[in-house]
Amino acid sequence: MNGLTNIDYSNYMPQGNTAPSVTTEAMVSRQAQEVQAAMVIAKNFPRDVYAAFERIKKACERKLLAESAVYEYPRGGSKVSGPSIRLAEALAQNWGNIDYGIMELEQKAGESSVMAYAWDLETNTRQTKIFTVKHERKAKGTINKLNDPRDIYELVANQGARRVRACILGVIPGDIVDAAVDMCQKTLINGHQEPLEDRLRNAFSLFKKEFGVTKEMIEEYVGSNVDAFTEQDFLKIGRIYTSLRDGMAKKEDYFNVKVSSATKSKAEEDFQKQKEQKESNKKAGDPVNGDSGDQSR
C-alpha cells in the first residue's frame, strides 16, 4: 500500500564473531593453567620480606642500577621525579612472586591495543593499564607511519614499559620503593672512584652524542659554570639523562634548544637578497627616487 517493496532483513545485521578456533581455546586454557599454577606456588612458598628487602639493598648498591634509578623532568614550573623503569624492574625481581609485562590485545590497521600489568601472585593484588599505540613516529616535526613489524614491536615495547613501571610501583609497598630510591642516591654519592671532573666530561660527551645537547645548554640549565658543578648537580643531570633515554621527556623540556641558523636562514637569505636587489634598482634609476624627473628636464 505504501509503495515499499518487501525487503529481506534476515542478513541486514552484520554476522557475529565466529567461534574461537581450537588453537585459540587451547592457548587460553594453557594460560589459565599457568596462572593458577603460579598462584599455588606463590601461596606455598611465600616471600620472606626481610630477605627480599636485603636483596633490594644489594641491588641498589650496584653503581649501574643507581645511575639509572630516578628520572626527573620539569612540569608547570616545578620538577617531577620518581623511580625509573629500571628500578621498578629490579624491585619486582627481588621482591618476588610478581608477574609483570605487556600484552598486545589487538592489532589493526594503524594501531595496537595493549595491556600493561603487574600482579602480586601472593596477595592477589593486580594493576592493569590498557592503552592504544598508533603505528607512527614523530621526528623533526613530521609524523612517519610504521609498517615494519620490528619497528612496531619496538614502539609498543617502549610505550608499554612506562605503563609497566606504574603497575609495578602500584603493587609493591611504597615504603620499600622510597627506601630503594634513597639507597640508590647514597650509592651515587659514595660509590664513585673517578673524580667529578672526569664524570662530568663523560656525561657531556654522552649528552652530545645521543641527544645533541651541548655543555653550554647544560650549564644554562644548572645555572652555573661547569667548574662550580657539585655532586648534586651531577646527580641532577644524571636523572635528566635517564628521563631522555627512557622517553619520559624531551630535551626541549630542559634545555634552550635553538633552531640552527643553517636550517632557518635559507628563506631569510633569499628574502634579503630580493630586498637588496630592489634597493639597488631604486638607486640605479627607479622613478620613485626622482631620477625620471631629472631626465625630463
TrEMBL record:
What segments bear the compositional bias annotation Basic and acidic residues? Answer: 265-285
Region Disordered: start and end of each range?
Answer: 262-297
The name this protein carries in UniProt is: Uncharacterized protein
The taxonomy runs: Bacteria, Bacillati, Bacillota, Bacilli, Bacillales
